[in-house]
Write a structure and sequence with these properties.
alpha/beta; Double Stranded RNA Binding Domain; pyruvate-formate lyase- activating enzyme; nine-stranded mixed β-sheet; 18 strands; binds S-adenosylmethionine; HemZ; rSAM_horseshoe; Oxygen-independent coproporphyrinogen-3 oxidase
């Protein structure tokens, strides 16, 4: 535990922010107002105002060394609340700088927390800032490295190429459908994913609820003449149910949702290779669905065993080619950097195997220790690569993607992610998943149906977002889905006027 001592009492949200930044440098840190021991880091902040422009400086003392940083800006807003927010950001800025000096570590994402880097960049561009101005803000205001800032700008360009109307899709919605079952639960996962066992009618009762949600929301969309941009079946593993159950779901989708012929993309995240069968692929084909994922995570059998994924590497490869033969035109694959006992060599091997298949897209995740996962609960049992190695793997992934004709098209970061790195989605040009872009950039309302599905309602006029979560557990869902439907309709009624009232 690294103790940091600051020279005044700060509000709780400031302390949380300081702790979060300090945790980027130390395994665990605690902010207080006392020097606890010799190893305590002492930090003093100073605040100055010149003609209403704030200037913040920090002085850090540790191990007999002193480091200082200063940051000044024009006051951006006259509003008290906004000024406070600006000051908070400026304090983060100087704190990060002195910690970087003291530890010799560089944080490529600077002080960015809680906001998607690409979303911030799009926001600046929508405000009318030039590419150069937006990049300068990322670098100077948020301390993002030049390399990451350029990556963000590149991704934003690709997104606008794939969805030229990205900024004006607020009048449409996308649909997420969550199927909460998997063959087994993976050790790192906290998604709504329950080992499927066909007892007590749990799966059937869940599916009854889901059909009902699809029908009611579909009716509402028809009544309000609202178009759907994309539909995404995720989970869990949406191919963990039987082929005839999948068939019935797609029937309800086509019967209930408006203007299906204009939906730009329907994806089924098959995911687990051990759920993919010829009858299921035939059902997908029957409904014109040819975008799926076949997720290896790793190409090392021992790793798959260690994370509780009960399929072999060979099965991933076989199911990939089977899906191809059965007409799947757009296949995504997910890899994770930093899985237990994996280093650069294992990751190189995963890339070499992926190279033989050339899927249309590849998402490279970095392992994140999610609070409720088995891996976090038993952290000592899992040996993972150090910060330097995961950084090298990420760089290697970038090079490999470039050499194989992939471009980065979405990026997101998570809490407790190894090396404070990120997850990056790569695709062959023109094969980007539109749904992934829309959800990452929070460009429109996403209506979540099914277990654990989260809905994000966006006010088309103001862009304001409101989140709503469906119950996560199947048993709670079965009891609560009707209420969840009512609440979602109430949100939608508040945001979109009825077709009648427009006439
Ligand atoms: C909704 S999950 C599941 C997809 C599918 N059920 C499967 O496992 O193949 C989507 C992806 O997120 C990634 N993922 C999930 N939990 C993660 C974690 N704790 N750290 C890093 N990546 C994670 C995995 O690569 C996974 O394929
Ligand atoms: S199969 Fe996918 S959703 Fe299911 S537990 Fe594993 S990572 Fe999570």
């Amino acid at each position: 535990m690294q103790q940091l001592n600051v020279n005044e009492q700060f509000p709780q949200d400031w302390i949380r922010m300081f702790t979060h930044l300090a945790n980027l440098f130390f395994e665990q840190s605690k902010i207080g107002t006392e020097t606890v021991d010799e190893a305590t880091i002492n930090i003093r902040f100073f605040e100055q105002f010149e003609e209403k422009s704030p200037s913040i400086s920090a002085q850090l003392q540790w191990n007999g060394q002193r480091h200082t940083a200063q940051f000044a800006e024009d006051a951006l807003e006259t509003d008290e609340k906004e000024l406070l927010r600006q000051k908070k950001r400026m304090y983060s800025h100087v704190l990060l700088e002195v910690l970087e000096q003291a530890t010799g570590m560089v944080q490529e994402w600077g002080i960015l927390t809680g906001i998607r880097p690409t979303k911030l960049y799009h926001m600046y561009r929508q405000e009318g800032k030039s590419v150069e101005e937006a990049l300068a803000l990322l670098r100077n205001r948020h301390r993002v490295s030049a390399r990451k800032s350029d990556l963000i700008a590149q991704i934003a360009d690709v997104q606008l190429n794939a969805l030229p109307d990205l900024y004006s899709l607020k009048q449409e919605v996308s649909i997420y459908i969550g199927i909460p079952f998997c063959p087994t639960k993976c050790a790192y996962c906290t998604f709504p994913a329950y080992a499927i066992h066909r007892k007590n009618g749990r799966v059937e009762n869940f599916l009854d609820g889901l059909h009902e949600e699809m029908r009611v929301i579909g009716d509402w969309l028809k009544e309000h003449d609202i178009r759907i941009t994309t539909i995404y079946f995720g989970g869990g593993t949406p191919t963990s149910i039987e082929a005839d159950e999948m068939d019935a779901l797609y029937q309800t989708m086509v019967d209930s949702f408006p203007h299906m012929e204009q939906v730009r993309e329907v994806t089924v995240e098959a995911g687990r290779p051990d759920t993919i069968t010829i009858p299921k692929l035939e059902v997908l084909k029957k409904w014109g669905i040819d975008r799926i994922s076949v997720n290896p995570q790793s190409y090392t059998d021992e790793t798959l065993k260690a994370i509780g994924r009960h399929h072999s590497v060979q099965e991933t490869i076989d199911k990939y080619w089977l899906s191809r033969e059965q007409g799947m035109r757009n296949i995504n694959m997910d890899l994770i950097i930093g899985l237990p006992n994996e280093g650069l060599a294992e990751f190189e091997h995963s890339l070499a195997e992926t190279e033989k298949m050339q899927p249309e897209s590849l998402t490279i995740h970095t392992l994140s220790f999610k609070r409720a996962s088995e891996m976090t609960r038993n952290k000592d049992k899992y040996q993972v690569a150090d910060r330097k190695t995961v950084g090298q793997m990420m760089k290697r992934g970038e090079e490999w993607a470039k050499d194989n004709g992939y471009i980065p098209y979405y990026l997101y970061r998570q809490k407790n992610i190894l090396g404070n790195l990120e997850n990056v989605g790569y695709s062959k040009p023109g094969e980007e998943s539109l749904y992934n872009i829309l959800i990452m950039e929070e460009a429109q309302t996403i209506i979540g149906l099914g277990c654990g599905a989260s809905s994000k309602f966006m006010d088309p006029a103001t862009g304001k977002l409101t989140q709503f979560h469906n119950p996560k557990e199947p048993a709670a869902y079965i009891l609560g889905f009707e209420d969840a439907i009512d609440r979602k309709i109430a949100y939608l009624d508040g945001l979109f006027p009825s077709a009648e009232s427009i006439k």
